[in-house]
Fold this sequence. Notes:
globular; 385 residues; alpha/beta
Amino acid sequence: MNRLTTSQGEFDLARFPEHPRDPFRAWDAADEYLLRHLEGAEGGEAVRPSGTVVVLGDRWGALSTALSACRPVQITDSYLARQATLANLARNGAAPDSVDTRSARDTPPERVDLLLVRVPKSLAFLEDQLHRLAPAVHAGTVVIGTGMVKEIHTSTLKLFERIIGPTRTSLAVKKARLIFSTPDPALPRTPSPWPYRYRLPDDVGVVSGRTVTNHAGIFCAERLDIGTRFFLKHLPVRTGPDRVVDLGCGNGVVGTAAALANPDATVTFVDESYQAVASAEATFRDNAGPDARAAFLVGDAMADVPPGGVDLVLSNPPFHSHQAVTDATARNMFHGARAALRPGGELWVVGNRHLGYHTQLRRIFGNCVTVAGDPKFVVLRAVRR
């Protein structure tokens, strides 16, 4: 936990789930820059939040917590970000309803008077959300974005220009930058181009040639990523009434493949991204038969899956948290998988060879074997003893 000191006050903040060895803070210089700007501390005129304040893409609730007196609407695609926000509000003595937390799938406010945008890693997600919010933006809306310099590109600014209106940027401070966009009510209101659908290649097993659905913001939304492609060629062949979990499901192609290969299985699709779980459900419904059984769960890895009852967990874990490279997410997923598996149940993982997941799996499960590998990826299997 760390303390963020701003002109709005001092706030003790942590990421979620909180871990004492987590080296990363719940905010960065981009969040600080935006908060200073709102108070006029950067030499400009202060922006006094009034009316409906929307905070888009707040990563761990730092912005929403600091502005909780304004009762903002937070819009995020991350379950972990929502939980972090609620925990940080409680940690700082703010009521849980002082921030209206909404997912990227929820209906946005009908009117937005101050729009604060933490620039996301995914340009597609920014595009989709700006399209969704544009009808609520009016000529008097103040629109300010923030991000680290490495996160703000010409394409980012062009999105604001095309969907909101004339856009400029600030000078960089501590490698962070602000974006100022002036709403132009005359701009044509076009619908979001998302979701995006594409046909899978012909060499990926049982899902070859199938169509997958991808909502904006999920990993590799416009094509099948090469790690998943390798995994699909080496999935276990099983029969019977297995209880299967597609952990970190993305667009759900792995879990859908498991369901098609074993019609007696029940598959649970789990991800911390609301967009991912919506994508997985669409992919499954479009490809599985009417009798196929599945559940769809947005949550923190396996935290909401009952322990000891799962036969098979399939996972392609992420190794980034926003811009930071970390194995914390994968480690949490592996521990959760072990708790959820029955004795004899199996975890199958695909990952970049250099990540060394076999070491973690041996530590957690006491065993790990390599099922398949190429110069870049390995498929690993660990068994709950």
